[in-house]
Structures are given as C-alpha cells and as structure tokens.
Write a structure and sequence with these properties.
The chain is mostly helical and about 140 residues long. It has two domains: about 35 residues, no CATH class; about 70 residues, no CATH class. The chain is about 50% helix and about 5% strand. The protein contains eight helices and three strands, in the order H-H-H-H-H-H-E-E-H-H-E. It has a three-stranded mixed beta sheet. A hairpin with an 8-residue loop joins strand 1 and strand 2. The chain is flat, with a radius of gyration of 29 Å. The termini are far apart. The model has no long low-confidence stretch (mean pLDDT about 80).
Length: about 140
C-alpha cells in the first residue's frame, strides 16, 4: 500500500492511514532487502508451560495416565479417556519422589492432563444392543 499509493514514504502513510511510521519503515526495509526482521519479544516473553519447565515429571505423569487410559468406545475420536483423577495422579507423583514444588494443585493437574490429551471422565462401558422385534413369518402359499 505504501509503495503503491505513497511512493514509499512512511510519513505519507502515517498521515493518510494513521499507521505507525516506524512500523511502515520496517516493512519497507523488509520489502527492499527480502529479510524478515523478527523481534525478540516472542522469544523472551510469556511464561513457560509446566511440561517445558519440568519435562521429567511430565513424562512420568504421561506414563501414569497411559496406565489408566482407555480408548473411546465408539472409536470416532482419538481422545483417550482415563479413570485417573488429578488427586490420584498427584499422589502417584509423590510416591515416585517428586517434590511439592514440581507437583501442581489438583485443578491445574487436571488441566495439564487435558492438555496432554487425556480426558478425565468416567469410562463409558459398552451398552448392550436394544432388542429388536422378531420379523413376522412370511406366509407361503
């Protein structure tokens, strides 16, 4: 837009469309050189996920959940349902020697298990088929 309508002037683009002149200038430089400039904000901002902070504990938690999981009975999705509760997962991690700092509270543990692909729901047992009425015998003549 700036090249086409403003002859490459960041000041004109700022005046006409209200865009930030510095951002337009950066875009023009990227266009000219072909090099995309990335800011360092995305690398250093934000909080790391628990799985990234404690990868060993996350692997053990995955092992524990795998031992208790079961595929959905209809096999329509790849979601693994588990009978494991967050409190029992926390107790199992404590048994394996992890500190309280590494183990999260129950609600957060449930969120992490959901994020790992394990749904904390009761396992639905296979339902018996309904009884269908017997077909009427055909009359042969």
């Amino acid at each position: 837009m700036c090249l086409k309508y403003c002859h490459g002037s960041a000041r004109k683009a700022e005046r006409i469309w209200g865009w930030g002149r510095d951002n337009v200038q950066l875009g023009l430089e990227e266009e000219r050189t072909g090099i995309i400039c990335l800011g360092t904000q995305s690398m250093s901002s934000g909080r790391k996920k628990w799985e990234q902070k404690y990868p060993e504990v996350a692997n053990v938690l995955k092992e524990i959940a795998e031992a208790h999981c079961q595929q959905e009975p209809s096999f329509k999705t790849s979601i693994a349902y588990t009978r494991l509760t967050a409190s029992s997962a926390m107790a199992e991690l404590k048994k394996r020697g992890f500190t309280q700092e590494e183990i999260l509270p129950g609600s957060t543990m449930a969120t992490i298990l959901n994020r790992m692909g394990y749904r904390l729901r009761k396992i639905v047992k296979a339902k018996p088929q309904k009884k269908f009425p017997k077909p009427m015998p055909s009359l042969k003549t």
